């Protein structure tokens, strides 16, 4: 699944951009022109709504590097109101190391 690749893999920015473009073509997916990750960075998101909640995958507007995710209620439900943020994450640093316990080299 694209979401797992974005979250859990170290991918070059061009791969992240390709995943953004592919996700934007999934039926039912919309584009959110201004989405904000957990660290306050603004980006563009591809989003899908299910059960009144919109899940956004947020990308840098210029490089399309994956920034994080956000969940936003788009309608009132028994457990949340429209506009409420239900979840938010931010990818702040990813890196590679040669050995366990070693500091990583910044990759993106």
Describe this structure in words.
This protein has one domain. The protein contains 2 helices and 7 strands. The radius of gyration is 15 Å and the shape is globular.
Alpha carbon gyration radius: 15 Å
Structural classification:
alpha+beta
Shape assignment:
globular
Q: Taking strands numbered 1, 2, ... along the chain, how are they ordered across the largest sheet?
A: 1-2-3-4-5
- Oligomeric state of the chains? single chain
Instruction: Report low-confidence residues grouped into runs of 5 or more.
Output: none
| Ends apart, CA distance between termini | 21 Å
Strand residue content = 35-45%
Mean pLDDT: 85
Domain count: the total is 1
Short note summarizing the structure:
With 108 residues, the protein is of the alpha+beta class. The chain has one domain.
Task: Give me the secondary-structure topology.
Elements: H1 2-8, H2 13-23, E1 30-36, E2 42-50, E3 53-59, E4 66-73, E5 85-88, E6 95-96, E7 105-106
Antiparallel strand pairs: 1-2, 2-3, 3-4, 4-5, 6-7
Which properties best describe this structure?
108 residues, alpha+beta, five-stranded antiparallel sheet, two-stranded antiparallel ribbon, 2 helices, 17% helix, globular
């Amino acid at each position: 699944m694209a979401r797992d690749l974005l979250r859990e893999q170290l991918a070059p920015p061009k791969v992240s951009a390709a995943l953004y473009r592919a996700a934007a073509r999934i039926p039912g997916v919309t584009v959110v022109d201004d989405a904000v990750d957990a660290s306050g960075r603004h980006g563009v998101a591809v989003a899908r709504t299910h059960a009144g909640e919109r899940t956004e995958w947020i990308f840098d507007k210029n490089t399309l590097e994956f920034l994080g995710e956000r969940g936003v209620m788009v309608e009132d439900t028994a457990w949340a109101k429209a506009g409420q943020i239900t979840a938010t994450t931010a990818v702040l640093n990813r890196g590679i190391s040669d050995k366990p316990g070693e500091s990583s080299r910044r990759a993106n």
